[in-house]
Known about the structure:
Order of helices and strands: HHHHHEEEEEEHEEEEEEEEE
Distance between the termini: 52 Å
Largest sheet: 6 strands, mixed
Bound molecules: benzoic acid, fe (iii) ion
Number of strands: 15
CATH superfamily of the largest domain: Aromatic compound dioxygenase
Shape: elongated
Strand content: 15-25%
CATH topology of the largest domain: Protocatechuate 3,4-Dioxygenase, subunit A
Structural class: alpha/beta
Strand order of the largest sheet: 1-4-3-8-9-10
Helix content: 10-25%
Number of helices: 6
Oligomer: single chain
CATH architecture of the largest domain: Sandwich
Radius of gyration: 23 Å
Amino acid sequence: MQLVTEENITELAVERWATAGDPRLAELMTALVRHLHDFAREVRLTEDEWMAAMQWLTRTGQISDEKREEFILASDVLGLSMLVVQMNHRLDPRATPATVLGPFHIEGSPELGYADDMSDGLPGTPLYLHGTVRDLEGNPVPHAVLDVWQADTEGAYESQIPDIDEARLRAKYTTREDGSYCVRTIAPLGYAIPMDGPVGDLISRTGISYFRPAHIHFLINVPGYEPLITHLFQEGSDYLDSDVVFGTKQELVTPFEPRAAGPTPGGGSSDVPWLESRYDFVLQRRD
Ligand code: BEZ
Ligand code: FE
């Protein structure tokens, strides 16, 4: 029998978790045990601090439901989500880079046509976002579905608003034969991540800015290509260099150019001044 000491407990716990039947699970769990024990030793974790951490984790679970992913938010603000994205999407430098999915994507958005309006009369400055989807060699990718979602001008996503029965600021657009797409929406604004839960409690005890710069989310999943989950950010937006979830990349920043009332992409016309942004998404083929 081997009795436990402060010196041997890590080794004993690692040995125990190494018995996992799946070798990858054994690798993950033994590394987790080693890093957790190293952390506790490094900071000389007190019992009060350990209890505060357990209670924080409990609250994080309790506030989560099918619409609120507080653990994912915690991973996002710790920079873990973005690290995992970057390690798993080491794309060719010519390809559009990936960023975090975030907690607000909803499956089953309505399909809209070229330049159709996904903002459906919501207040805001009209924005036409258009360009092409192409491959690394510049060839157009036709029939690519762009799943698009964004917050309103108050910073609220559909899933944060109770009792909504219609899709709000989200839609699927399909590229034409020449790879072109056109999203008609309203200009997004920067917004605060949800601060009314345990993640917000922790952040408010730091000097961390809890805002994200103005952005629109895209999920582009085309058979034969690496799936792309990304955002476009408005050039000049506040918080570009302090995004609380570390999701901002230079290649994803695009200008929103002001245009006078009049003709718009897709053959329509706007009675009010509008914004235009051109962006070409570049997909990488799967090996
Ligand atoms: C978002 O952009 O929707 C988002 C991403 C991560 C955390 C919170 C919000
Ligand atoms: Fe967002």
